[in-house]
Amino acid sequence: MEEIKLSFSQINMYKRCPAQYKYRYIDGIKIPPKSQSILGTGVHTGLEYGFREKRINGGDDTKIKNIMKDKTVETIEIAVQTEQIDWEEGDDVNVLKDDGVKMIETYYSEVGKKIKPESVEQEFKLTLNSELVLVGKIDLITKKRFIDYKTGGQKPQDDYILFDDQTKIYSSVLNLPGHIHWIIRYKKKDPQIFIQKREVSKEEIEQTLRDVMIIARMIQQNLFYRRNDIRICGWCGYRNLCYKEGGKNG
Ligand code: SF4
Q1: 20 alpha carbon to ligand 1 midpoint, in Å?
Q2: Which residue stretches of 89-234 are H helix?
């Protein structure tokens, strides 16, 4: 069979709904991102630039924080000018920029200033067999851990990290414990940071790799069923298209 390259966002989309995966990655249909997602990309890019500067040239916390804030604002502005966006209630470009700056301020003051980055946005590639390669980028690596940032609009579930395949696989490759740093934006109060950590057992890694291989095999065999589950379809951007093509969820 043909070699297939999969990222964790692709794997997660297939697990959420195989039909959604097909629309996005086989048919190439993109849906406008939600404003919350534009904010998340802005904050992520701001952290990347700031921590890279810290690693390469150093500098005081004010300088690093300002780089992060400026890059966050710039990334949001460019996205708003160049992309069609699915705006959520109460959001506009100024709200996103203000919230992005607040998220950086809170994260850097509470957590980021103590971090000593060894590597930023390191490419990840794991060849599982002649047909399957896992690819990705690791947000940040220090001497003792790797960190994956996530943004969101509500407090994460306490056990989220137990179900996160990406953390398990990166742990196995880097031989380091994984941390997820959540930067949560609330529309009516200040942002909050949540940190989740875990060590992963060999058995869990093996099981996760087996599951990933099963998903890859299903993709190679063009098995794309519809989830037809209101908890997922209710906010799926492909819902209208899916309904026209025979889904039960329009
Ligand atoms: S509407 Fe539901 S079944 Fe259809 S693609 Fe979206 S999540 Fe899948």
Answers
A1: 6
A2: 93-110, 165-174, 202-220, 230-233
Q: Which atom of ligand 1 is nearest to the CA of 229?
A: 2
Q: What is the CA radius of gyration of the chain?
A: 19
Report residues whose beta carbon is within 6 angstroms of any ligand 1 atom: 17, 19-20, 226-228, 232-233, 236, 238-239, 242, 247, 249
DSSP 3-state assignment of 132?
A: strand
CA-nearest residue for atom 7, ligand 1, is 233
What is the rounded distance in angstroms from the CA atom of residue 97 to the CA atom of residue 42? 9
Burial class (CB in 10 A: 0-12, 13-18, 19+), 41: middle
Question: Which atom number of ligand 1 is nearest to the Cα of residue 16?
Answer: 7
Angle between helices 8-16 and 202-220 (to 10 degrees): 70
Minimal-distance CA residue to ligand 1 atom 4: 242
- Could you list the pLDDT tens digit for every one of the 250 residues in the chain? 667 899 999 999 999 999 999 999 999 999 999 999 999 999 999 999 999 999 999 989 999 999 999 999 999 999 999 999 999 999 999 999 999 999 999 999 999 999 999 999 999 999 988 888 999 999 999 999 999 999 999 999 999 998 899 998 898 888 899 999 999 999 889 999 999 998 888 898 899 999 999 999 999 999 999 999 999 999 899 999 998 887 554 4
Ligand 1 atom index nearest CA of 238: 6
Spatial separation of the C-alpha atoms in residues 180 and 196, rounded to whole Å: 5
